[in-house]
Design brief:
By secondary structure, this protein is an alpha/beta fold. It contains 8 helices and 7 strands, in the order E-H-E-H-E-H-E-H-E-H-E-H-H-H-E.
Length: 259
Amino acid sequence: MDLGISGKRALVCASSKGLGFGCAQALAREGVSLVMNARTEGPLLEAAEAIRAETGVEVVTVAADITSEEGRARVLKAAGDVDILVTNAGGPPPGTWTDWERDAFIEAFDANMLTPIALMQALIPGMAERGWGRVVNITSVSVKAPIAVLGLSNTARTGLTGFVAGVSRQMAGQGVIINNLLPGLHDTDRMISLDQAAADASGVSFDEARAQKFQTLPAGRYGTKEEFGATCAFMCSQHAGFMIGQNVLLDGGATNTTL
């Protein structure tokens, strides 16, 4: 299937590894030039070079904290007039709802709600003027089924979901399509570290800990960054023009909901 986005330009946040890298790689394979952002320069440069070597597309890198005003300004200056925006940021730490103070919520809002909103406010007007644009916000399954220890993430990401629900419908008539992609458990460095910690805590091998986790998933496995990226690329494609303000679960069936 031709996704119809060859020659487009995308900004992909937190794209040096994991799901962000999967999205950047998938877009590059479709002929999309990239502006890649992450906080740490070394892994970002390595990721960009790997994508250049494989696909031959132009890749610009900006090592910056996208959640800060200064970092965001640097990224947006490098990005220029992009056609595709993929927002992504790590979630806030787990905890107990009685322990979170106001500052913890503000930090979560800054990273997981206000930063993607600021990026959309900066880039969507240009997309609308050109009559074409795609935005995919990487959020979390927690907006469908809240996770008790991730209350900060539940709150901030649900706020972003509400914003997208409104603005996506306002912008669809101008050719700008905005949706959210909700990851479940994927085979990333983060998941490897969590499984190793679970193995150490329970006194079993890494493979045994992982097998136990697989049993909780209807798909019987973790997702891969490649299939996550492919889903993101489709949501950025010419074929997604009638998909407006949706929250697409990619969780191997783990979230037990009818809708």
